[in-house]
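Hi F.,

I've been meaning to write this up properly since the lab meeting, where we talked about keeping a consistent format for the predictions we share between groups. The idea is simple: the sequence comes first, exactly as it goes in, then the structure tokens exactly as they come out, then a line or two of notes. No screenshots and no reformatting. I'm using this chain as the first example so we have something concrete to point to.
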Amino acid sequence: MPNREEFSALFTYATEGIIVVNDSGYLIMANPAAEKLFGYETGGLLNIKLEQLIPQRFSQSHQQHRTQYANKPHPRSMGIGMNLFALRKDGSEFPVEVSLSPFKTAEGNFVIAFIIDITIRKQTESALLKQKLELEKLNSELEKRVRHRTLILEEALHELERSREELSQLLEKEKEVNELKSRFVSMASHEFRTPLATILSSLNLVEKYGELNDRENQQRHILRIKSAINHMTDILNDMLSISKIEEGKIIVQKDWVNAVQLSQNILQEIQAILKAGQIIHFQPAGQELAYIDPNIFTTIVTNLLSNAIKFSPVNKPIYLNLNITDEQITIAVKDEGMGIPEEDQSNLFNRFFRAKNVTNIQGTGLGLNIIARYVELLHGNITFESRLEKGTTFNIVIPNIIENA
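Output, unedited:
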């Protein structure tokens, strides 16, 4: 094992700076390499505070780090991933690499630091970085030239791709139109055939009961004729609404309207189609005045209530909630009817779509599509929740503001 003299020789003649610091942060030993590194004369580093060898901007934070290290001392490299700088006596700074090793004697706790000046390494790294940047610049220039030479070809390819996409969109649109035409013909032939048959049958019976002077049965079939005509009128109105929306002929005409009174008027008119035992519970809240198009509001509420009536059994309640604040109008229609199958819910607002559990109930599959389009025109949104045999709730939120205010 090396003796004390050999250790002293290692300390004295080491080419890297070595300093020993006590637990108060003062230097108690420094080898000649360290004195030369920091620009001090022989013995000039002894008993000075360690922070004197660190640039002022790092001095405070270093003192905190030194205190933390003293609490849990262990051998390690200092400032991993960071750029460390030391301060010479003349005030100049230089980059360093530092390794720390704690040790303990009878006189107390100490830390020995091995310090290497890495100025040359940093200069080499800087030169390599500069060379790398120049190389990247050269590569960038070459890439620009390549891009410039291929620009015309790329533009031609893009134009060809755009033409292909436009053609594909036109074909898809034509396919969609043909499908809509086919579905409309199928729907119209089915929906018109039933009420026309009802009208023809009831007319014959009205004539027969007229000859028998049976006023009661005659009146009953007259009501059936009126109901069939109203159903056909509703179908035509739905088709007209879709046509106007598609052609952009719907002009939103908003005004301050007593929406509560308007809702009560709708409820009075819709009483005629209620099934036995059905009651609509109207629950208004907030303000009465709303800034809205009254015709569109009437169409939305009427269609939602009509659907709730149509798809609910007898003796089941229906709820209409209306809440008006300064910011928004909220409409909610809830029923306890058959509900919508989960697999059909994503298509509910598509034109001519009807859920698989309502195929035996009259309808065009246009009502909810019209409602959604009207809500969109009012810059609102529509959502719903539904469970089979538990019912459905539609929620509509519309801004209650003057857009150009």
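Notes:
The chain is about 50% helix and 20% strand.
Residues 119-211 form the longest helix (93 residues).

If this format works for you, I'll send the rest the same way.

G.
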